[in-house]
Amino acid sequence: MTERYGQQALEHALQTKRLGRPLHFYAETDSTNARIAALAAAGAAEGALAVAELQTAGRGRRGRAWQAPAGTGIWMSLLLRPAIPPTQAPLLTLLAGLAVTAAIRGETGLSPQIKWPNDILLDGKKLVGILTEMDGDMDAVRAVTLGIGINVNTEAFPPELADTATSLLLAGGRAYDRAALLARVLAEFEARYDVFLTAGFAPFLAEYRADCMTIGAEVWVIGREYWAGTALDITPEGELLVRRADTGAEEVVFSGEVSIRGKE
Ligand code: BTN
């Protein structure tokens, strides 16, 4: 398959009204999240999108690096300026997880699952990472950079990732068109974002429950302490409700790492 993936091909593929406009394509950049943060600081409007063929300093969560070589994946960041309190910003990550999962299902027929809050896995291995970065103060969100990395046509990962990472090509046995998938991700996100802005996350709870492998699983919660429990549900605020194995008490987990027992 000769794939067309660049400024023109992407603009041609886009189906969205507001998101992905304007689109900035970089043959190479440090990090698309850094590009969007700079555009946001310069006053860019909601919807601006940065897409890179290659990132030289791709950022992951918790200060980790994100491998983003050329020709293999979708490395994209979207600028949002939602009128929501900063406490609700993490919900955008969950919303993006739903949109990416739906887009992959629709474009490939594969069935990825969300590991709360925002990893997307296929066959138990990481397929997608989402990094949401916010600029704002206590009362208001100024800008949110929603960074999404999808391993699409990666044929092999470096040894340190080979056991834990996968790509659509490895799982589906064929290459996929990145421009079509990227356009689908934006379309799925725009539809959900418009509902979210007026109605919050509640309309998406059923979809999140259906797509999230963490709910119902035996988990380890790694926060100030390390404890075991059963993940019961997701709250309308996007937190995970977990029943502790030791006391039986139900606790709401806001952040921190949750790993699924037996799969870590
Ligand atoms: C994670 O650690 O799971 C999050 C990874 C996020 C990677 C994407 S790739 C596009 C965007 N630009 C970055 O530097 N990071 C995000």
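^ biotin complex. Residues 73 and 152 are 5 Å apart (CA to CA). Residues 178-199 form the longest helix (22 residues).
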